[in-house]
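Exam review. A common question shows you a sequence with its structure tokens and asks you to describe the fold in words. Practice with the pair below. Do the first one on your own.
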Amino acid sequence: MGASPKIWKRPAARAGSAGGQIEARPVVLFNPDLRILGQLFPVTHFIEIMRGVVLRGAGPVELWRSCLALVLISVALIVASVRKFQKISLV
């Protein structure tokens, strides 16, 4: 049992290939304009909350900004979707 079978070895992924991995970079390395744009995505705040809870054991007091951002994004999306569907008539 010295060598593992080839079927278990993962092929090396090339950059840009469909099977390639996405390289995650910290937001602080981004251009300031891209940092502002990144704050509009709910996943940015969700990841910050998850890292705080899981890695640091942070509570709501430390994570209130991200929680507030998620609530505001949710309200904005709900308002936009209600306005969009009010324009559609069912008749």
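Now try the second one, then compare your answer with the model answer below.
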Amino acid sequence: MKKHTILLLLGLFRKQKLKNLANSQCLLVSEIKKVQNRKFLSLINHCKKNVPYYKKINGLNEVKSLSDITKLPFLTKKIIKENFNDLRATNSIKNILFPIQLVVQLGRY
């Protein structure tokens, strides 16, 4: 992927994020809770499918809402050290983001 294509996609992503943030300012508390719950469950499903460490964790299927967050195990420093590679998503876009970060850090945008 060429640098200018990556930067264009990054700009479109930021524009959409800003639009979503602006729209969320007018939501009712009940609507905010629904959005939080949907995003939380999306994250849990992503972890179940793409993060090797969480594929091994029993009980993730019991998580049905944000209120079930207490069912998730704590990540200690020891667990992170022992499972560092398994805590990285297999569908990570690290290879795409690194050139973007480098371009931004060097001021070549």
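Model answer, second protein: The longest helix spans residues 3-24. The chain is about 60% helix and 0% strand. Full marks require stating both points clearly.
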